[in-house]
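Form P-L/3: holo structure prediction, ligand MGD.
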Amino acid sequence: MNGKKIIRSTCKACHGGCGVLVTVENGVVTYLEGDPDSPTRGTMCAKGLSSIQHMNHPDRLTYPLKRVGERGEGKWERISWDEALDTIGNKMKGFIEQYGPNSVCNSQGTGRGYGRYTVRLGNSYGTGNRGLGTSHICYFPRLKAFEAIFGVNRLYCDYHGWGGEYPKTQISWAKQIEHTNADGEMAVWFLDSLKHAKNLIVVDPRATSITNQATLWLQIRPGTDAALAMGMLNIIIYENLYDKEFVNNWCDGFDKLKDRVREFTPEKVSEITWIPKEKIIQAARIFALEKPGCIQTGEPLDAIHNSHSNALSIIAIMAITGNVERPGSMMCWVPPDTGPMEVFHWEIADNVTKENLEKGIGRDKYKFRPPGFCHTETVLRQLREGNCAIRMLHQHGGNFLFSLTNTKNVYKSLLNLEFISIADQFMSTFCEIADIVLPVAHWLEEDDIWDMHPGFMVRANNKAVEPPGEARSTAWIYLEIGKRVAPKFWPWETVEDMLNYQLRKADIKWEDFKEIVMLARTGKDQPYYKYKTDYWRKGGGFPTKTGKVELCPTMLEDLGYDPLPYYEEPCESYYSTPELAEEYPLILNTGGRVAYNFHTQFTNLPWIREMQHYPRVQIHPDTAREYGIEEGDWVWIESLRGRIRQKANLFAGMDPRIVVVQAGFCYWEKKGHARFLTSNANVLTDDAGPFDVAIGSSNYRALLCKIYKVKDGDPLYDPIDMDN
Ligand SMILES: Nc1nc2c(c(=O)[nH]1)N[C@H]1C(S)=C(S)[C@@H](COP(=O)(O)OP(=O)(O)OC[C@H]3O[C@@H](n4cnc5c(=O)[nH]c(N)nc54)[C@H](O)[C@@H]3O)O[C@H]1N2
Ligand SMILES: Nc1nc2c(c(=O)[nH]1)N[C@H]1C(S)=C(S)[C@@H](COP(=O)(O)OP(=O)(O)OC[C@H]3O[C@@H](n4cnc5c(=O)[nH]c(N)nc54)[C@H](O)[C@@H]3O)O[C@H]1N2
Ligand code: SF4
Ligand SMILES: [Mo]
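OUTPUT (holo model):
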């Protein structure tokens, strides 16, 4: 057919990774389908498949814009790229000169494979205040715990059978990988590997789309995962079910862990978690005895003030059962010859002075975090109080008015920044309060390397069509800003030169890589039992201080923290705040992804909106009856911070005391503050702490609330009180 071509690429409508065949006819994308020859075997989800509607949406940003009215007033003037980039560059340099690099924060939304550019930019101008956002409640706690225990910052589930075995037992712990494709794992791998599994254990307060296939469903009280994990450790250790060979030869700190979990008897843990003790015992026995096994760990474990203990205790279960580096267990994948793309920012990390790192906001308190990341809630509080070292924010993607705790406070805080520049594809509610807005290309419109989570593959995002108007690719925007503020570290003439540089280790150029689309190390090329070789350490071992798997990590000890996991009640609960529970008698859980939105994205697409029209709050039918609420009623959900409305979805698959509010639902069709105050879950969440002591995580998953029916004449939303 005239002008028809098919381009192989990689979808990035979520964190990305699915191989895609893009049909382009006469310069227009006409069809998208999964690439059957990719590791995701031709599968795609509703979000990815609606990318044509997303890309062609009439509301796409097409030109750089400068604010001309008051912040948030919505008055903009079109400017040239030169003016936009020069203004951003000059502002950055001006603040750096006057107040030092820590006065300029640069950050991003959730990962879409451009994290290496964001971090390199921060490193290149030397700031110790990067990464305002949600990493402290999304993946950092798990990554840091992996690093503390194993010396490598992540282990993946070996679903692939490359070592001759599939996992016999799988635990899906606070995770819906079947919907979320998060953290470098893909739904299709998990679902296929279940065909080989004997046991599936699901740890989730709610019934999910896989609980009906589960051998055991541990219906946990939100926010109590560390107690459950320590209860399972208690059974595995005191019933002598642990892997003695692995523990004796390769682990350090076992006796200390054994002492710590002694008090976490099945009875006590059952009381804390609301899970029957028989089920806790059974889960521990199955995982310890029916090997190999792996554990998927999800974001709710991080989005709680007990986050680092959640991660330490669950990862310890992997370790003491010897489910590490054996086929069908938890693996540290060796990357393809390119190496991990993250090197792009590590390699210049030393450019940030020790002093600037130490002065990073929140660093004094929350030290168990990658260097350079400031602590979000502290920064926002300081902005409101008028004593924050950060004066300017350059932001790429993300919408803090939806993603951070206590939206009304977030709004007030951000208004106190002296300058905000932001790059997005749409005029988000965050863009609306910025000073300069940059239009960004869609994944179908840009060339880049996809390596969202370093794993066994690196893939190409291939530009299928030109972006609309003057929208530009992410890589180009970073390169141009980098050239203006720290040219020494951004020496490339073109984006292609920069991509070639990133691929150099594999001795391949972008023009060839974009044709082959993927470099991967799979099958027999992927080595197991690396700790028995010189891979991490001469003579064998793990890349930790002791060379062993550290069950009582020296990394935490050196930072002055209790190195062992412990359990703490959520900051609001029936047990920690019984008086509050009298007024707010239900447990508020805000999250649990649905297939139809990726945070604030896609609720402006007809295909997606047809599948879910309204934001929904899950309420148990018994509870709904008690409050006179019926399916489809608009309901107020109120916490100490404020209230929002969502439509009731009666759901019997959870404890009647729990209410699950959908997060991220953006009312794109509403204007002004209605868009982010009507139904946004984070109007309800807590920004005051206490936070996780080592990492600073806030609590999104186990708070208290009350619910009642919306009455005629009620306002659509409660406005922000700017005086308080
Ligand atoms: N469709 C879609 N996909 C996404 C996203 C999206 O917005 N939409 N977001 C992406 C991002 S940034 C991330 S971090 C990932 C997150 O993806 P996941 O890590 O899979 O997390 P969730 O789906 O939020 O929650 C997983 C499960 O945890 C349960 N849960 C809630 N609270 C608790 C608790 O206290 N304990 C336990 N054990 N379980 C609990 C929920 O009921 C839910 O079924 O998804 C990514 N993928
Ligand atoms: N209550 C509650 N709150 C949560 C969560 C929850 O489960 N419950 N989840 C938390 C988690 S885990 C996370 S990671 C955060 C996520 O929250 P954010 O990090 O704020 O989410 P994003 O999807 O990055 O932000 C959406 C914006 O990014 C823009 N965008 C999308 N792709 C691109 C791109 O390629 N380039 C650019 N420049 N812009 C782009 C979109 O147009 C949109 O305006 O939310 C957190 N907040
Ligand atoms: S799972 Fe993510 S990468 Fe795959 S099709 Fe859906 S949006 Fe695209
Ligand atoms: Mo996330």
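COMMENT: The longest strand covers residues 642-650.
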